[in-house]
Amino acid sequence: MALAAVATVVWSGSFVTSRALHDSVPPVQQAFWRWIVALAALAPFAARAAWRQRHVLRRHLGFLLLASLLGIAAYNTLVNQAALSTSAGTMGMIMAASPVLMAVYERVGGVRLGVRRIVGMLIACAGVLLLMGGGRPSLDFGAGDLWMAGAAACFASYSALLRHKPREIDGPAFLFAAFVLGTAMLLPAYAVSLAVQGPFDPTPSTVGPILYVGVFSSALAFFAWSRAIALIGAARAGAVYYLQPVCVAALSYVVLGEATSPAQVLCMALILGGVVLSAGWWQAA
User: Fold this and answer.
1) Which of 147, 144, 176 is nearest to 72 (CA)?
2) Residue 285 within any structural domain of the chain
């Protein structure tokens, strides 16, 4: 559980950095340079392992491509896109509901959920819908909220997929290969962004956050999360996500000055209560 907690807390900062960069670095360029930095940080520890296992990696290329698309190329780009029009606190709260989808994947895989987990999932989903509706029952969702819901779905799918990672692929080799493939997938979109939006200005206020998300939120956090999934499974690791909206709300207030409204507090309580009830966190601790 400690590894999942480390990943969750570190990832909380990435939502704040995405929001801080929303008007200075285009979303695709944020994602692309994030993974370039992550590759540079991970290479000394994983490049040789990936090269030694190149034949194994090639044999499981389909798995690697799907994992790279969901967890590397799509997830973070969608988060950055959401940051253009929604607050960091809202992003963290929507993301906190991703363990619900992880539990759904378990059910599809043949695991019986039980009444407690189903009720918890429904409560968490109600909290997300209220949050996206501005604190009231509504289907008139903002664009940023929908982008963030897509990001949460990608991350939950990636986490569920990690449970089926071939045992013959070492963790560092898998991450390095996924980072390489995910970055390659982003390259065409990055070229289009450069042509249409132009490059961003590399100043301390733009480079610093990208270095943070590249080193800590990517290389460190993804390694810790992968190990947590391997040790305790996606559903139990997902239970630790109850920390994330609290951390994001605190960071966004301190760094960005974003206050949390009473309606958001209510939605947070519903989401976290539902996730904890569904995942049985107190039993897994």
Assistant:
1) 176
2) no
For residue range 68-97, what is the model confidence (pLDDT) as tens digits? 999 999 998 999 999 998 888 778 777 777
108: in domain: yes
| Gap between the Cα atoms of 183 and 180, Å rounded | 5
pLDDT at residue 33 is higher than 90: yes
Burial tier of 12 (Cβ tally within 10 Å: 0-12, 13-18, 19+) = buried
Alpha carbons 141 and 138: distance in angstroms, whole number: 7
How many domains does the chain contain in total?
1
Does residue 109 or residue 95 have the better pLDDT? 95
Domain assignment of residue 132, yes or no: yes
Which domain range does residue 109 map to? 2-279
How far apart CA 61 and CA 69 sit, in angstroms, is 12
Structure tokens at 222: 């993804």
- pLDDT surpasses 80 at 223: no
Query: By the 8 A CB rule, do 117 and 276 touch?
Result: no
Q: Would you say residue 192 lies in a domain?
A: yes
Q: Cα(first)–Cα(last) distance of the chain, in Å? A: 7
